[in-house]
Amino acid sequence: MKKASKHDGMLPEYDFSGGVRGKYAKRYHQGSNIVVLDPDVTKRFPDSVAENPLAQPRRVRHRMLQNFTAAYTRIPSGYMGQIVEWPEIITEGKDLEACRESLRDALTEMIAAYRELGKEIPCHNSLIEHLPVEA
């Protein structure tokens, strides 16, 4: 059986035997947070916002992925694509991939324009189904 070490497996940096009990209790009760920075950090950033772009207040915009429905139609010059929820967005391409890419670009530009104008972006509220009929 191995004899227990002097620190019982605790690293020296976790030894708080020299700590003063209650030293920061008053600050804690006042609602302060205590953060101890390494000296090299305090040299680079002497106060809470000095030259630190991450500490500067900034507006964060969270964007979520929104799906739109694309309908493609074969035409003599290739394909025509249209966004079902946003019928004003129509593009053409020599093949399906070119039409899809053009439609994606047009949709991205339209979303950017609507955001800039403060307009509401159409949401997915379409019901898509195939209607079989005898022809």
Could you explain how this protein is built, in words?
This protein is of the alpha+beta class and 135 residues long. It has a domain at 70-117. 25% of the residues lie in helices and 12% in strands. It contains three helices and three strands, in the order H-H-E-E-E-H. A three-stranded antiparallel beta sheet has the order 1-2-3, covered by helices on one side. The longest helix has 22 residues, at 96-117. The protein is elongated and about 90 Å long. 4% of the residues are buried. The mean pLDDT is 76.
Percentage of residues assigned to helices: 25-40%
User: Helical segment tally?
Assistant: 3
Helix-strand pattern: HHEEEH
Distance between the termini: 89 Å
Instruction: Using the CA coordinates, give the radius of gyration.
Output: 31 Å
SS class: alpha+beta
Low-confidence stretches: none
Instruction: Summarize the biggest pleated sheet.
Output: 3 strands, antiparallel
Q: How are the strands ordered across the major sheet?
A: 1-2-3
Choose one word for the global shape. Answer: elongated
Oligomer designation: single chain
Mean pLDDT over the residues = 76
Query: How large a portion of the residues is in β-strands, by DSSP E?
Result: 5-15%
Number of strands: 3
